[in-house]
Amino acid sequence: MNTDRFEQFEFYLSGTMSSEEKALFEAELSADEELHTTFEVYRTIETEMRGKEQNSVKETELRGSLQTLNSRYFNAGPEEKTARIIPFYTSKVYRWAVAVAAVLTIGVVSYIAFFRQDHDSRQLATAYYDENLAQLSQTMDATRDSLQLGIAAYNDKDFPKALSYFESIYSRQPDNSEALKNAGITYLATGNYDKALMSFEELSAMKNMYANPGNFLKAVTLMLRNRDGDRDKARQLLEQVVKERAEGSREAEEWLKGF
Known about the structure:
Blueprint: H1 4-14, H2 19-31, H3 33-52, H4 59-73, H5 91-103, H6 108-133, H7 146-155, H8 159-172, H9 177-189, H10 193-204, H11 214-225, H12 230-244, H13 249-255
Helix pairs in contact: 2-3, 3-5, 4-5, 6-11, 7-8, 8-9, 9-10, 10-11, 11-12, 12-13
């Protein structure tokens, strides 16, 4: 695998590709099974790294784990005398790989089984975020309103500024569900899943909302965070969303078919 591919993976996951580049890359993923598999391993490593940055392992242990991963699961042909190794050469990718190897307390086979079981739920949540939460709706005639200024900052990816607006509004108006929801979405955008869950938990407890989205957004956050037990908690929340016909019930009903 060309190491340029890892740069391409990073650009795609960080949302810095143009719409044309993104469409072309997604077409390649659909057509190339090996590329798709390698991309999903890369995405999993990135996800694990977010919660495990402070762990470390010896380089030899890491390389052994990666070699086992490649030799068993990347379908080396009979003409290949040695296992094909994914070249995690860049320092950033290497740090991610180190973190994954550090937290694996079960064998590589068990890790792959976990990966295959859960990657679809992360894909669903990622697709939902990209389509519905990457940009927030903004009115055109309220540029001086603090909420609209926060939304404008969010859409410009100035997340610290956006968060300052949303949290300031919520501290002054504790019944402002929109400010609280947007604060949670901003935490979600920055990968601060714990803070996002806290915001959405408060949102779900609000009684003055029609079709409260709090539980559905909690489920999306858990699917993205993907720690032990998160998938089961997300399923329970999705079932509750469907039962209550809350916001997100249509997506929840469809997602539950694959859980």
